[in-house]
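Handoff note, outgoing to incoming analyst
You'll be picking up this chain. Sequence as last confirmed:
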Amino acid sequence: MNNISKLFLSFFFAVISLAGATAQELFVATEPASNMPKNSIRLRLSNEGVAESDLKSRTSFGVMYGLTKEVTLNANAYMSNFYQQKQQITGYSFYAKYRFLNIDNVQKHFRGAFFAQYSTVKFPIIQDEINLAGENNGLQGGLVFTQLIHKLALSGSILYTKSLDKFAPGHEMMHENVQNSIAYTISSGYLLFPKEYKDYKQVNTNVYMEFLGDSHAGSGKNFFDAAPAVQFIFNSKLRLDLSKRIQLWGDMQRRFKNLYQVRIEYYLFNVI
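Most recent structure output, in case you need it:
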């Protein structure tokens, strides 16, 4: 890990340890157990990448819809130049979440949800990591729990991913033990500003620290990432995320171990 990455991590650990502010559940690297409000839509435009000899990036556009209080649906399209010179559409993914647990108390609540995802891509990537965000064909299912305690939001998930890729002749043996993986995530979030709510037009400033781990069931190869982020919410509808994903350790073959991410989201409430 380079010096800049170490400083970035140190800064966010310091902020989180000192913050005594209101938490948010709008995690950047993961999805919480909480759902979109019924009949509401979230539009998402996201870009992530890495600066090598030239800029390599992936852009995604997503639409999330609150079908009911318990069910949220999501669809994404991906475009990148990670593995070719020009940007081109690489694939699509579809996601559904069912919230089965909802416990509310004064200034705190607890949520539990099942989720599933399917991804289809034009150019499956030959590597150990199974990434359903535009790189691999596959299926994923998991369980997530999110706890809000006054000013602190915590979330954790465990998920199973099955690759559906068919590798080119000569590559099958290289990847015969990496078709299945078990992953886990741990997330925390704090609202730094405003210190006191007066109206919905106030800008919310949130910080997050998330950890993501993955391990292959066959080969035993693994990785563990940290994903610090800062987030701004304007007029309770427009959201801007700035984050960095950093591999802390691992022996799994991956195309990129450190990525930046910039994301813009807009929420439309009670539109249908």
